[in-house]
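Researcher: Let's do a round of design. I'm pasting the structure tokens now; please hold your answer until I've finished.
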């Protein structure tokens, strides 16, 4: 018992020597401040979407604020996004209990393009009220547009000279400058004509300047303009050249030294019979065996190589009753 009393006395002295227990500071007023339920109703609610706005077309949105509380409340606008202004009775004087007032938001899309999101923040004179937001989304149309970025001539016959157009239109009506900066091949011709706020870019295709054996093409046109937000355009033009008589293959190419002859098939597109009137080789190193005389739906020629080193030539075939002269490239490209 004596030992137990001594231990309890010692423990009590030790606890007294530790001093008072630490105190936890009370939470700040900022942390304990509560936000009361909203005292204002806003119409329209949520994010307002404007699907299409011109490059300088100002839009106005009217909001109605209704005081659903029993006491007056005043509104003021905080920081505003670029191109946004707000004004109206709802900002000029407090709203009495149960009263309504309007606020007009004006959106100026100048110097903007594409999808734009704006948000107006509003605060009241009630410290227990949170902030009110007016979110808006609008799509600003580009000032300068083209009626299509890819167009085609379609199937073109060798005697035709087709045209196609790209139309550039500037919505603001400002003077437009359109310039082709990429170099065109010889068989494409370009013209530019301005009519009011529309610029017409015309392309002409000249099949007689297309290299023999080439039947398909995809051209890339780089365009520069003076529109500040649409300074460049990339346009694409495709074409397909057709002949009255088709050669298979379109080019006769020898790649191996041990190849001495290759076959060439000729067939009319409309399925009718054909007959060769004249056959010549423009160049050296090749000889062509004449097809059997007479008309047939399919003719076969044999191209013989005489060249011993790299060379190229053109086989020219004229058909009876057809004005077109078919040109087939011949080549010996050893080791390629």
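Researcher: That's everything. Go ahead.
Model: Designed sequence:
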């Amino acid at each position: 018992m004596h030992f137990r009393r001594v231990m309890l006395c010692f423990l009590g002295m030790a606890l007294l020597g530790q001093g008072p227990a630490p105190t936890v500071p009370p939470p700040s007023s900022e942390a304990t401040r509560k936000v009361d339920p909203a005292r204002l109703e806003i119409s329209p609610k949520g994010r307002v979407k404007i699907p299409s706005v011109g490059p300088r077309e100002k839009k106005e949105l009217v909001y109605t604020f209704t005081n659903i509380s029993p006491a007056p409340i005043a509104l003021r606008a905080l920081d505003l996004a670029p191109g946004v202004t707000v004004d109206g009775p709802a900002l000029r004087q407090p709203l009495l209990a149960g009263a309504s007032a309007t606020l007009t938001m004006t959106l100026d899309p100048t110097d903007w393009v594409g999808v734009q999101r704006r948000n107006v923040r509003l605060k009241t004179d009630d410290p227990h009220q949170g902030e009110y937001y007016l979110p808006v989304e609008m799509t600003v149309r580009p000032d300068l547009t083209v009626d299509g970025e890819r167009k085609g001539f379609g199937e073109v016959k060798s005697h035709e000279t087709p045209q196609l157009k790209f139309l550039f239109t500037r919505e603001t009506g400002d003077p437009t400058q359109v310039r082709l900066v990429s170099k065109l091949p010889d068989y494409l011709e370009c013209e530019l004509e301005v009519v009011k706020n529309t610029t017409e870019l015309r392309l002409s295709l000249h099949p007689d300047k297309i290299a023999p054996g080439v039947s398909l093409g995809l051209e890339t046109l780089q365009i520069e303009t003076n529109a500040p937000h649409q300074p460049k355009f990339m346009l694409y033009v495709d074409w397909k050249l057709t002949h009255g008589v088709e050669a298979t293959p379109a080019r006769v190419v020898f790649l191996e030294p041990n190849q001495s002859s290759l076959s060439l098939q000729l067939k009319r597109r409309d399925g009718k019979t054909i007959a060769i009137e004249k056959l010549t080789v423009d160049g050296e190193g090749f000889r062509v065996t004449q097809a059997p005389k007479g008309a047939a739906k399919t003719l076969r020629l044999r191209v013989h190589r005489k060249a011993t080193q790299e060379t190229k030539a053109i086989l020219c075939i004229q058909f009876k009753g057809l004005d077109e002269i078919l040109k087939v490239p011949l080549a010996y490209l050893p080791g390629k």
